[in-house]
Amino acid sequence: MSGPRVNLFFLGNSSGVNFSIILSPIDEETGKLQLANCSGSKRAGDWNLNVTPGMNASKVTISLTRNLQLCLPNATDCCTTPLCVVETLQVLACRDSVMLARLLIQAEIYANSSFTGNVSENATVIPNQVFQPLGSCPCDLTAGACDVRCCCDPECTPDLKQLFNGSCFTGVFGGDVNPPFDQLCSSRSMEYTPDWFPFLCVQSSLNNTPFLGYFYHGSISTPKVPSFKIPLQTSPGKLFTGYRQGDPIMTEENEYFTIPQQSMAGQCVGNAPVAYLQNFDVKCLTNLASYKEGLPHDVRINSGIGDFIQQNVIYRTITDMGKFITESESRHTAEVLCQNITVAEHYTFICKDKNIERVNVTVFLGSLCDGETLTQRFTVKFLSLKSTNSAELFGNPGYQVGKPVRAANMNASDTFGSLNIWQPAGRGLCASATYTPVLFGLDSLSGCILEVGINEDCSLLRGNVTEKLNSLIQATHIGKRDNSSYGDLNDWVEIIRLDPFNSDTNVSTGSLKGICPDIPANLNIRIIFADVGAVQGIPQQQILAVQISYSTVIWQFQCGLICENSISFLPITASVQFLKVPAQPPIPMTRFQLNYTEFDCNRNDVCWPQLFYPLTRFYTGEPYSQCLAKGLSLAFLVLLAAIMSNPWFSKLWNSSLV
């Protein structure tokens, strides 16, 4: 325990049970605790024991009665060292001299540095800090106790100051309330003291310092508490002129249309709004105790122009729930409680421009019993009313971050392709790894482990690794946009493939087994994209080029003392990198910019184009009025010098003297 009080609980009937506490010093010779007996009492040294009986449990409270304040000079009944209490206690529960339970407590309690004494009722006269410092030690914030790092605190003893002597507070807060200022004649803090300094310096006492009132003038700003309430639309039936991408879909009751979705933490949120033109496919775990029904399917949805659409719902029943149950506890059949629940919901929004035309919903129903864990699935897909192919997405002509990159295999009859990376499972072996699509805008790195024997042929190993890597890319072209048409070749960019280096020729591995050079173990996918425009204020991103390359490694068999009949592992990886480039090449530099670099403010300390910068509003080093006055004075001096240098001025001056 590290505090002056601890609570314990004795489970069971406490009638006739005698609780006691004893101090158990450690035997210096054996290093063991002394044997305890039931002859103790409810008080031992500075410790008290209190018992609060209950029905099936009794509360036992152990409390320390001594003062934990650190000793001040000439003080008693206090802690002489910061580690105030180091004792070993034993709490015993006995009945008829028979020990029922015993608990060992090791107490290490440090002294309390906070002030717990009586506060004086006398009012403290606070001086006017415009004319004299508020206090000689501003960091002395705790009365009657030493403040850490406050070396001017009179309550800090020399022993305590040694703990933080090297890190004391500096400046006014650390007690230097009257520091010498630069204008003082006795101060030589300036690095370069001008020659005229002795004529313009100030001879004054440190009590009359410009730092007086340093904390005086201030302003109190009212904190602005941010509102976390989601602004709802307030005029149902006539509020919309159409949805934009990312807008929440509204219902007839002017509320958000919600479907369970995953949050940033990976948990499922039941009341998450559905955003327009943003597809998702989520899976949520639930059981019978935490299951909640979502929005009823008779809720009508705002189409975007004030009309309301009824959902077209199709119900289907799942008889085999084995594919959806992830966990099940074995219970007796007579005690199991079951309930009809929703297993999956698939929403399809048919859209036209900014409006929703139809909403088709397929609901799968099943039975969930107590003790079972169900995997629910919710999908939302937006389709165009003009699209004849239901698999072709609608809406944003550009890519959205986090959406799969579209691929096509133009050399096959079925042009649908895929661009994937690995999603290892279990031991991370390539044989059991699954695929996950490449998501736009998200750099990723994945891999798996290939089992290789010591007698593996290097040529076969290179071919096997290359085949594993090429299985990730079942495509010849990548879609420029998210809605690229499979029938239009201009909507696709061809994948640039840099074949791996073939080391079958001119490579001698010698007679060593288990060493193969130039293994293409790393697949590098680089996707170049750019912002090519905006639709309704949303940037449209388009893929410009895709390049695939390989990095080779030298594989060497790793084994212990015995290498025969053993297997080594070869990790192979696939990385995806998205590179953003300007949609148009930058404007080339002119010949003047290349030759006359002395006018370039970024390359030279002297910037002639910014000669009059101090006279503009952009200069904030001094008040604008001072800059303007200095500029006018400088202009007057220049004009005066120009007049005096003129020949007629000298003639006029000489004639006036005659």
Task: Please report which band the strand proportion falls in: under 5%, 5-15%, 15-25%, 25-35%, 35-45% or over 45%.
Answer: 25-35%
As residue ranges, the low-confidence spans are: 227-239, 388-395, 503-508
Mean pLDDT, to the nearest integer, reads 78
Q: Which radius of gyration do the C-alpha atoms yield?
A: 41 Å
Strand order of the largest sheet: 18-23-24-26-25-27-21
Number of strands: 27
Secondary structure tally, helices: 6
Q: Biggest sheet: strands, sense, closure?
A: 7 strands, mixed
Count up the domains: 5
Structure in words:
It is built from 6 helices and 27 strands. It has 658 residues and is mainly β. It has 5 domains: 106 residues, no CATH class; 82 residues, no CATH class; 129 residues, no CATH class; 169 residues, no CATH class; 59 residues, no CATH class. The chain has a 7-stranded mixed beta sheet, with helices on one face. Strands 10, 13, 14, 15, 16 and 17 form a 6-stranded mixed beta sheet that branches.
